[in-house]
Known about the structure:
The protein has 275 residues and is of the alpha/beta class. Helix content is 28%, strand content 28%.
Amino acid sequence: MIEITLLGTGSPLPDPHRAGPATLVRAGGKTFLVDAGRGVVMRAAAAGSGADQLTAVLLTHLHSDHLTDLGDLVTTRWITTFTPSPLLVVGPPGTRVVADGVLQSLSADIGYRTAHHVDLDGPPPLHVREVGPGVVWDDGDVIIRAGATDHRPVEPTLAFRIEYAGASVVIAGDTVPCEPLDLLCAGADALVITALRRDLLEPIPLPRLQDILDYHSSVEDAATTAARAGVSALVLTHYVPALVPGTEDEWRAIAAQHFSGRVELGDDLHRIEIG
């Protein structure tokens, strides 16, 4: 079984009820965090996990809303573990520069803590792996494959397919429909993907809002991707505009016009079991 928890279902627009983009995946005794939006450490705690329990952080891309709280993950893991435990961060090219910048921003704090705590004898240990399409994790139990997505002008961007015990889940992040995503999703049990309500955004005459329509999937796009790939369940997240309680059936009805499978969406901490 693979367990998916939507830690953060929000967007760059601050929402008191939704943390930034982040999805927790538990499989085979491992815990993977895909993206690290604002509030991720607090939401992980609410889900019964923590920075010290993560097997790896997987970054789909380097937009700020998907990694705002990477620094919180780094420091929280550092100060709550008592044996060397490097945090593995896997992401597209450019991830190392981001990680180095996070450590640089924490340089004062690192100095204070290493001066005060004798058992902290160096900066937070990070292991960064920059990856492209292909297998990025294989421990003989859990396999993770990365695939290219299309979020241009942001590039490169990735989706991750996590496989365990015959079950498979794809976490797509931000993207428009594209052939590499279809191939990565083929036959998967679930696809977790950003979704916009084009019908609600198109009438708003703000150029910046209109801009986001050309590099994210609408609900219709997400549903057609799931249908083409033969996915069993479609999990919508990173809602724009924010999902208003009581309107869930509207989102499901739009998806159902293009996809006949199970459609999941909900608030932060919504949990789905696959397999």
